[in-house]
Structures are given as C-alpha cells and as structure tokens.
Amino acid sequence: MLVVAAILAGMVWSRLAYWQVAQHGRLAMQAQAQYRELVQLPAVRGAIFDRNLTQLVVNTTVYSAFVSPDQVAAADRDRVASGLASVLGVDKANVMTTLASTSKFAYIQRRFVKTKADQLRALKLPGVGLQEETQRSYLPGIAPGSTLAANLLGFVDWNGDGKYGVEQKYQQALGGTPGFISSYRDLANREIVLGTHTHQDPINGQDLVLSLDANIQYAAEQALADGVKRDNAESGSVLIMDPATGGVVAWADYPSYNANDFNHTDPALFKDNVVGSVYEPGSVMKVVTLSGAINAGAIAPETVINDPGVLSVGGYRIYDWDRRNHGNVDYTYVLAHSLNVGAMKAMLAEGHPAFYSNLQAFGLTKPSGIDVADENCLLPPAADKMSDSQYATASFGQGIDVNMVQMLAAVNVIANGGKYPPPHVVERVGTHINPVLLQPQRQAITPETAAKMTAMMEQVVQHGSGWTSRIKGFELDQAGKTGTSQIPVNGQYTQDVWASFVGFLPAQHPKFTMLVVIRKPHYPGSDRDWTLNDGYMTAEPIWKTIAQSIVVDWHITPDPR
Amino acid sequence: MTSTRILARRRLGASGATAHVTAQPRRRRRTRGLVQVAGTVAAERLRLNVFGHAYVGVGAVVIALLFYLALAAQITQASYDLSRLQDQQRQLIAEQDQLRYQEVTMHAPAQVQQQAAQSGMQRIVPSSYVAGSQVAIDLTTPLGASPADTTPLWIRAVATVVNAVGGTRDVMAATKK
After folding, report:
1. Where in chain A is the domain with CATH 3.40.710.10?
2. pLDDT (tens digit per residue) in B86-111
3. Does pLDDT of B30 surpass 50?
4. Average pLDDT over residues A51-67
5. Does B60 lie in the same domain as B42?
C-alpha cells in the first residue's frame, strides 16, 4: 500500500517537476504573452527638401479598416456591411460574405485618408477596427496621377523600405532606428499605461536636402512630356546639373509614374532611364574626344584636316553622317558640323592609349558613383582589348555605352574649367554636408583646353547643328552639341535612334549644364527624311524650353561682351 | 506583539515584586518607538483583551485593503485616461500631417502654375536682356577728403540747440549728408 502511494506520489511529483522545471520557459512565455505586450515604436522617416527647402515628401497617416467576423453578431452584419460600403465605397455583398465567413481577421480596405476613418469611427460598428499606418506623400507632378521627380526620389513600400532612387539609396539615414515599448494589458486588452513597462524611444530619420530645384524640375518634366509627345518618341529624359558642384538640379523621365499610388503602377515605369539604363551618346562624345586631343597637344581648334566623308579603319569603311566630301576643314568646323571622320582623325592623332586615358579622365570608364540607387553602366573593355574599329566608333560615340549621369558629368568638365565635379543629388544629410562636396575636384584637362572647347561648342550653336537651341539674348553666349546614334538590337543597328543635345550657358560662366535624350523619336515626316529625328529637331527644342525657364527663374543674364 | 507581555510585567511589578526586579541583572535600556508607546497607552486606557486586539488588527487590514483598492481604481482610471489621450494625440498628429501635406501641395509648382493659369497669368520669355557691365572697384583707393558741409551756420546752430533740448539725433541724421 505504501509502495503504491509512493509510486502515485512520485508520478504526481514528476509531473509537477515536468511542468515547473522542464516546461517553465515555455509556459512563462505563454503567460507573459497574455498580459505583456511589446510594441514597436516606428521612427519618423526623414523629410526630403529641395535646394530652396521646398518639402518634396511629407509623411502622412493613413488608415486600414479590418473586421473580426466572429465578433459581429448575425443580426448586425447588414448594418456593418452597409456602413462599410457607404463610407469606403466597397461592395456590400463582398463585405457580407466576409462577415459570414469563419475567419478571425480580414482587411476591408487599406490605406485611406483620415476623413474616411473619422466617418467610420463615428458609426461605431461592432467588430470593425482601424489600423494606423504611415505613408509617404509626394508632390503632384505635371498631370493628375503623376508625382514630381518620381524617378529620382523613388518611393517607400508598405513595409517602410525605400525603393528606387534617393529613398532606396538613403534608406538607412532616412529610416532611422525604431524604438519599442513593453507594457501590460488588462483583460479587455487595454494598455495599463502606469504599469511597469520598458520604453526605448525611436531615433527618427534624418532629413535630406537635395541640390534639386523643384521649379526647374517641374518645368523640365512639362517640356519633356510635351516634347516626347510631339516627337512621337518612346520615352525621353532630362538631366540638369550645376557644373561647379556636380549637383543635380533636375532629373526628369517621361513617361513617369505616380509614387503615391505605386501599388497600382506598371513596374516597368519604375525604371529610371537617367542612371538606370545606358545609351550610345553619339556625337556628344566628340566633345570628349576633341578635348582630349587638344589637351594632349595632338590637335588645335584651328588645325585643318581633309575630310573626304569616309575613312577606312580596321577593315571597316566609316562615313560622316551626310556621306559628303567636306574637303579641308578645321576642327571647329568638325565639331560644329559633327563630322565623324574628323573625330576619328583626332583620336588617331592622339593615339589609342591617350584616347583611353582621356575616357578615364572624363569618368567614362567607371560608374559615376552618383548617390541614387541602381546605377547601371556598361564599361568599355580594357584599353588593350579594344579593336581599332572600336576605338574609331567610340571617338564619335557609337559602340560605347554610358548613362546620362556619366555623360553630363563629362561635359561638366568643360563647363567647370577642366575639373571633374563628382555628380551628386544630396547636399546635406541632417546637419552634415555631403562629403563629396568637401573633396577637392580632380583636374581632368587644363583650363585652357576647357576654354578652347567651350569656344568650339559656342560655334556649334552659332553656326552648326545647335541652331535650334538658341535662346534670345544668349545667341552669342551659349554652348552646345547635338548627338544622334542608332539603337542596336541583337547586335545590328536599327533605324531607331537616341537623339540628344547637351549644352550650357552662359558659356563663359555656366550656371547649368543640361542633357536631353529622346529615345526612338518619330518626328512627323521622318519616314521620308530620317535626319528629322536628329537631336536638332527633337532634343534641342526641349532643351531650349527648359533653358528659358531656368534663365527666368534664376535671373541669368548674358556675360558682358 | 510585545505589548501584552509588557503589561503583564508591569502588573507583576505593581503587585510588590520590587526585590525580584532589583535582583535581575542589569539590562540595556531599550528605546521604544512613538507608535509602540502610543499603542501601549491606548491599550492601557482601552484595556483591550486578545479578541479586541485581533478585531483592531483585522479592521486595520481591511482599511488598508480598501485604501489600496481605491488607489488602484484611481490609477487604472488615470491609465485609461492616458491611453485615451494618447489615442487623441495620434489623431491630432495625423490631422497635422494631413494639413502639412495640404500646405506643401499648395506651394508645389504644379499648384502654383495651375492657380496662375486660372488667374489668367502667363509667363513671358524675355526677348532681350540688359547685359551687365563690368565695373572695376579699387578698394585700395584712398577715401579722400570728406565733402564740405554746406548747411548754413545758423541752421546748424538751431539744430544743435534743438538736439540738445529735444534729445534726438534724428535732426542730425537728416541734415548730415
């Protein structure tokens, strides 16, 4: 009897020991989960401002409505469904189906504005709850349903992670560090604020100040949209920089998207063509080629060459765009009339190694390093891996791929007295200045070479292909260069082109540099004359319209003569 | 606690056991607290028995319990008030964010242009510019003599008097060139 009692007592004891010792941790956690709550305190995401401290992004609170069908009595279902349908505009039948289901939780609608939430709250519907969420709201763009600088800024997804553009690149600085609060809950799941709790404040994200100018950005987007439509083009992009600092003033893509409604947007539109895709720059590259040759002492603007309209290089016959014999011409003429043979001869006079070094000096053999997410670049092969024909075509911008930031940063060298200003978008992170602004700028070419090239680019506007970009009052004080290059598909060049124009003004003391690229334009009449798709007909008018806005907005006047 | 024993000892002492008391070894004098003394005095006056003490003890515990419950209820209520105020604060912040967005949007280039267009305003591109002319300023040039004061002597005399009387420097500032 005593043995049986001892065995029974032992069983009870061992069972108790099992629950109290072996399962202690798990049970303690389960108990704690019933009355203790760990709430994450989200950090407030930093704001983004333009150079004039115009706020480009605002954090707003939005609401999501959910129901707990098991808490809605059958008699109340109709009232609840009607209330939700009237306030949120959802289908009443669908709500009724949800309420009749056995699920414990279901969203009715997500991310609506506070006014709707207030209406819903006033109805006091049983089993209906509201969940607060933070949303980034961006400024309206050129058309309803578009937002300003969407491709540059990117957006923030519903998890609070920055996607694309500046939002993604500066996720860590903008996002901050979330805090937490550990508190107790009563039986009705209400927080006992005065109970024992641990509290860790969040560290809010830092604000960003960009070099962007919202007014110029708007003007650029508007002119670009009009231009792309007029040219029947597939798409277009505009990039404007301050040549003295390398700061981006405007960054526009068309078509673009609505960052406030990213979840209903075709993901293909998220891709940014300014830095996210490469193109062959065409004759804009001649600015780099001739600058390098002048800097190396191989040529001078007044050096005369013979241009028969064609040159055989590496077993290929490469023609000028017009296939005409131009006779004896100087290099100013070569640039003004965009002659491929002249560019190739300059490259040959300079030599392959010097030409390649020049590409490096202008930053075309490595990524630009701009502080925007997802930079795409297709670097040229090593100097000793390039064939003669590759060198030849690269001298006039074919067979070499760059992104727009790389190309405009290279032109900034000319506008900035031969120095390479590192391209960037963010000027300040919180109270700290972007370190790239504090570094000395690299001298890529001599100031004298930059001055000579500026004078040659002025001639492009005054006597060459840049004539359609002339701005009243600045006819003698603006520099530019057109570029048109065929788009290769599966290794074969097609009739579709990238048309571009780069320029700056005032020529001697540039306030801005601007590059406009139009993809696959089909200008009216271009089916008969393909040159109508050239940069001077498609990209230049857009450049001119935007430049006029900048001149007015920034009160730029021509330099005295 | 010790009060009943103390009372018993005192009763024994009062009945004439002085010699016994003096025969005891000398003990360290214990200091008694105010509460203990007051309790002793009260007990002496009330002459409570054991049940009376228990009754008082239970009563004190009940009072303490009620006090604790009242306090806990108040704390809970305050806690709910705080929770409600936090909720209200969240709503106000949401409203503030909404207003901020409205304000920012009103200053956005799109809105400004739309309003300008509605008002019939147009942006005109200047057809010509007044080109700036370079002006050389030599900061090392000597300043030269001050310009002569051509104010008549009598005006200066009057001004001096007025300044002295009126205590103002405005007249001087106005007459100085």
Report:
1. 214-553
2. 889 988 999 999 999 999 999 889 88
3. yes
4. 92
5. no
Rounded to 5 degrees, φ, ψ at A525 are 95, -5
Whether residue B118 is contained in a domain is answered as no
Q: Which two tokens stand for residue B167?
A: 């205590």
Cross-strand partners of A136: A59
Is there a domain that residue B148 lies in?
no
Asked if the C-beta of B87 comes within 8 angstroms of chain A's C-beta atoms, the answer is no
Q: Tell me the per-residue pLDDT of A131-155, one tens digit each, with 9 for 90 and over.
A: 888 889 999 999 887 899 999 999 9
pLDDT-based confidence at residue A525 (cuts at 50, 70, 90): confident
Q: What is the dihedral of CA A279, A284, A290, A292, to 10 degrees?
A: -50
Contact A388, A314 (CB under 8 A): yes
Round to whole Å and give the CA distance between A484 and A476.
Answer: 24
Asked if A472 reaches chain B (Cβ–Cβ under 8 Å), the answer is yes
Identify whether the C-beta of residue A180 lies closer than 8 Å to the C-beta of residue A400: no
Find, in chain A, the residue whose alpha carbon is nearest to that of B101. Answer: A58
A399 DSSP 8-state letter:
S
Element (H, E) at A65: strand A55-67
Q: Clarify whether residues B36 and B73 are in a common domain.
A: no
User: Which A residues in the span 175-234 are in contact with B, Cβ-Cβ below 8 Å?
Assistant: 186, 190-195, 214-215, 217-219
- Residue span(s) of chain A under CATH 3.90.1310.10 come to 40-63+137-210
Contact A139 B104 (CB under 8 A): yes
Could you give phi then psi for residue B45, rounded to 5 degrees? Answer: -70, -45
Residue B122 lies in a domain: no
Q: Say how many domains are in chain B.
A: 2
The token pair that represents A478 in the structure block: 């603006």
The confidence score (pLDDT) of residue A473 equals: 85
Interface test with B, best of A48, A194, A511 (most B CBs within 10 A): A194
Chain B nearest-CA distance from A243, in A, is: 22
Contact A182, A38 (CB under 8 A): yes
> Could you tell me which CATH class the domain A40-63+137-210 is placed in?
alpha beta
* Other beta carbons less than 10 A from residue A47's beta carbon: 19
pLDDT at position B126, please?
67
Contacts of B130 in chain A (CB under 8 A): 557
Q: Tell me, what's the pLDDT at B1?
A: 43
Mutate one of B84, B97, B111, B123 to test the A interface: name it (highest A CB count within 10 A).
Answer: B97
The verdict on B13 and B39 lying in the same domain is: yes
SS3 content of chain A, % helix, strand, coil (to 5): 40, 25, 35
Out of A365-369, A392-396, B117-121, least confident range: B117-121
Q: Which of B83, B107, B123 sits opposite A552 (nearest CB)?
A: B123
Same domain (yes/no): B76, B95? yes
CB nearest to A139's CB, from B76, B86, B105: B105
With contact defined as beta carbons under 8 Å apart, do A408 and A239 qualify?
A: yes
Chain A residue numbers with beta carbons less than 8 Å from the beta carbon of B128 are 472-473
Mean pLDDT, all residues of chain A: 91
Token pair listed for A231: 């040219």
Phi, psi (rounded to 5 degrees) for A245: -115, -20
Neighbours of A66 (CB within 10 A): 16
The yes/no answer on whether domain A214-553 falls in CATH 3.40.710.10 is yes
Domain span at residue B36?
1-24+31-47
pLDDT (0 to 100) of residue A245:
95
**Residue whose tokens read 């008082």:** B56
The yes-or-no verdict on residue A486 having pLDDT over 80 is yes
- Strands A48-49 and A208-210, bridge-based pairing: parallel
